[in-house]
Q: What sequence folds into this?
């Protein structure tokens, strides 16, 4: 706010100073005779009047909050105001112009001169108003854009996938047992878990990550789950090499894989398959996370699953608008597929 | 003390076995990977203690307990489950959070041993006596209730209301089936609707049609039908 006020004074004083200089210089070129000191004093006085009148005009604009008016209401008011201001300046310059001998009293009260000069001032003030309002509208638009962007960021952060604590502690428990049984594998598991934690804790609030990075997290995640579920979990990857040119929202595929484990494998006594399959078609990345099990949409039983799907949907909407899609497909009651279709380009 | 470990993860079971090696008083007599296996083993091996995971494929740990007529002592094991923890903080013997630490396990074993000492007279026959406990779950709340605390079972449609303390949760069972399982020296079938705990009987009054009105400690009154009244008098008299 302080900056804005300072900017106004700089522009107001600077602008009118330029106006005065231009007036003095142009009248010295225009007149054949040398410019008189009286005329310079008069022009400076005139400029000072304009400065004060426009300053009062700004005071009026702020007080009446003209910036919130629509154009149909604003324009007539501005036009009327600049004419009134023009006349005021004309009247106020008479007491100085006469003693300086620049006009005769007869000239001063001549209606044509009065109207002509007032219209001249009105045009100058109108230009001032146009500049003033353009600046303020632009600034306001900018502010609302910034606000919108920050709101979107907050929303995206809230929707961002959170690692499931149940998974972390189960993984740690499995690793603890694995230390005796298979030290090499347990060391690898610790690396996998730290990679996942790093990814999920990272303060870097990027909206998108490379497909490569996301796939690494998914591999680490499923690697850890396969330690836990052992032969009950079979993992398959079928990755289109073109996929690596895409960017994806971080932890989104991991969340889908986690849902596949949570609602599929972990409920099946004999276990099942989780398959990650990607295809690039028409410049869109199609990701299928397929798992054994049956899809039960039952928000009352397990509100978290319905919420997770809704989160995914909202995140996609915020990032891609209507260009991405997400749906759940059931295959012959034996498999559930979470399908994600993402565009190549992310529009801000 | 004979213990059974119930967890769907082999590594989790192995880890607990390893930790239990430090406690010779606990003898692990088996491991089960899901609720069905566990139910069978509990019937065959009759363990004194269960280490029970809650989230398992098929039936959960809670569902397993609900299907048992009598439950052994239970120590829950879970990774992270705020709802479950809330549920059994009320009345479970103990619960262990995975990864389990040796100190925490020692505490749990200590609690279990203490409780076992108090329950030394636990009957080994199939009938449920006063020293047995049952698992009751009603909505989000669950209880391990010693049968000595249950003063009355009341049939209510397909359910049985279990009266203990100020609670009356429902279990999904028929009163006839329950009657067959209960030790007849401790529990008495007063009528089609009620089974009373004899150790809670405070007073008996004659009632209409040759029946009786039994007053229980705490103020509940239960009518004994004419058919059962003679039998009841027999049992209560020396």
A:
């Amino acid at each position: 706010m302080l900056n804005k006020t300072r900017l106004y004074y700089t522009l107001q004083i600077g602008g009118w100073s330029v106006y005065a200089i231009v007036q003095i210089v142009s009248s010295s070129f225009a007149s054949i005779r040398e410019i008189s000191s009286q005329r310079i004093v008069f022009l400076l006085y005139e400029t000072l009047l304009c400065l004060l009148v426009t300053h009062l005009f700004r005071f009026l604009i702020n007080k009446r909050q003209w910036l919130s008016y629509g154009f149909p209401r604003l324009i007539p008011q501005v036009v009327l105001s600049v004419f009134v201001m023009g006349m005021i300046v004309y009247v106020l310059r008479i007491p100085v112009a006469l003693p300086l001998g620049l006009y005769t009293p007869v000239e001063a009260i001549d209606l044509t001169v009065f109207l002509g000069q007032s219209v001249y001032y009105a045009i100058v003030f109108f230009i001032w108003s146009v500049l003033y309002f353009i600046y303020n509208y632009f600034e306001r638009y900018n502010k609302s854009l910034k606000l919108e962007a920050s709101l979107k960021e907050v929303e995206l952060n809230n929707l961002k996938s959170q690692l499931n604590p149940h998974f972390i502690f189960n993984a740690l428990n499995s690793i603890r047992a694995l230390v005796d049984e298979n030290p090499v594998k347990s060391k690898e598991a610790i690396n996998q878990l730290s990679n996942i934690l790093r990814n999920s804790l990272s303060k870097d609030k990027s909206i998108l990550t490379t497909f490569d990075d996301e796939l690494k997290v998914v591999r680490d995640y499923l690697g850890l789950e396969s330690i836990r579920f052992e032969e009950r979990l079979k993992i398959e990857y079928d990755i289109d090499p073109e996929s690596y040119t895409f960017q994806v929202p971080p932890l989104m595929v991991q969340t889908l894989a986690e849902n596949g484990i949570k609602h599929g494998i972990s409920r099946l006594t004999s276990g099942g398959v989780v398959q990650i399959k990607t295809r690039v078609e028409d410049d869109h990345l199609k990701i299928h996370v397929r798992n054994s099990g049956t899809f039960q949409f039952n928000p009352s039983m397990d509100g978290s699953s319905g919420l997770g799907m809704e989160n995914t949907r909202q995140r996609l909407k915020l990032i891609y608008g209507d260009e991405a899609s997400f749906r759940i497909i059931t295959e012959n009651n034996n498999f559930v597929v979470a399908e994600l279709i993402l565009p190549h380009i992310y529009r801000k | 003390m004979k213990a059974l470990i119930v967890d769907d993860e082999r590594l989790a079971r192995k880890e607990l076995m390893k930790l239990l090696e430090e406690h010779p008083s606990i003898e692990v007599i088996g491991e089960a990977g899901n609720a069905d296996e566990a139910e069978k083993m509990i019937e065959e091996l009759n363990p004194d203690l269960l280490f029970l995971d809650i989230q398992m494929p098929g039936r959960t740990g809670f569902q397993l307990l609900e299907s048992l007529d009598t439950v052994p002592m239970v120590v829950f094991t879970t990774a992270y489950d705020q709802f479950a923890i809330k549920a059994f903080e009320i009345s479970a013997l103990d619960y262990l959070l995975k990864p389990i630490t040796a100190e925490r396990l020692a505490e749990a074993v200590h609690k279990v041993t203490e409780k076992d000492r108090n329950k030394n007279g636990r009957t080994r026959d199939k009938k449920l006596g006063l020293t047995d406990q049952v698992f009751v779950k009603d909505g989000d709340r669950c209880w391990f209730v010693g049968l000595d605390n249950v003063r009355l079972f009341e049939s209510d449609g397909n359910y049985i209301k279990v009266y203990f303390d100020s609670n009356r949760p429902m279990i999904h069972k028929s009163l006839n089936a329950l009657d067959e399982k209960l030790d007849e020296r401790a529990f008495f079938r007063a009528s089609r609707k009620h089974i009373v705990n004899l150790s809670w009987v405070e007073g008996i009054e004659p009632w209409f049609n040759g029946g009786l009105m039994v007053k229980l400690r705490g103020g509940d009154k239960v009518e004994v039908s004419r058919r059962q009244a003679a039998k009841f008098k027999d049992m209560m008299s020396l």
About this structure: Chain B has two domains: 2-118, 133-236. Chain B has a mean pLDDT of 86.
